Amino acid sequence: xxxxxxxxxxxxxxxxxxxxxxxxxxxxxxxxxxxxxxxxxxxxxxxxxxxxxxxxxxxxxxxxxxxxxxxxxxxxxxxxxxxxxxxxxxxxxxxxxxxxxxxxxxxxxxxxxxxxxxxxxxxxxxxxxxxxxxxxxxxxxxxxxxxxxxxxxxxxxxxxxxxxxxxxxxxxxxxxxxxxxxxxxxxxxxxxxxxxxxxxxxxxxxxxxxxxxxxxxxxxxxxxxxxxxxxxxxx
Length: 235
Description:
By secondary structure, the protein is α/β, with parallel strands linked by helices. The chain has helices at about 5-15, 45-55, 70-75, 90-100, 135-145, 205-215; strands spanning about 20-25, 30-35, 60-65, 80-85, 105, 115-120, 145-155, 180-190, 190-195, 195-200, 215-225, 230-235. The radius of gyration is 18 Å and the shape is globular.
């Protein structure tokens, strides 16, 4: 990986001529993303993110922290002990520059011997999983990182609305994927292209069923205006 997403974050943080990220997926056209959005304050965050942050308690693990805006709020405004992790070396450099006390380059799937009261996966947290078939392993790893009585706060969207309907009201879904929420994400920055990334959008019922099969209780906390939702998983 070229870490273009992280490079854009670090360029913005260090005022190094940041440009918009160009994103494209298997089901959507090319789009521009303003990097400043990743640096938003609590007041500018969507309701689902605000709700998740208000529910955080105890020691917190922020997985896929990006520019660290969620962790900063938890650390500075709520005085919660927060660990921010991301696989992006550049993003973590930006997090450290922003003042996050515990920011690490870390793939959460390899994290061991640590326990948390709250685990956060926001901005389509299920995306990190990549493929539906990996979901049981993904959830088992999250479960292993929870303290007794702990919680996982995760958001996603049901993207079924993006597919065309036939005359009977059914959906035309390409047969390439095992599940319609599996997409490929492409990112470009300053003329360079990143290696394609598997990304998973997950409908709530599927999350609930797979969570139950892996020893986790699921609770629908909040539904957004555009097929998105926040869920809480617990043992």
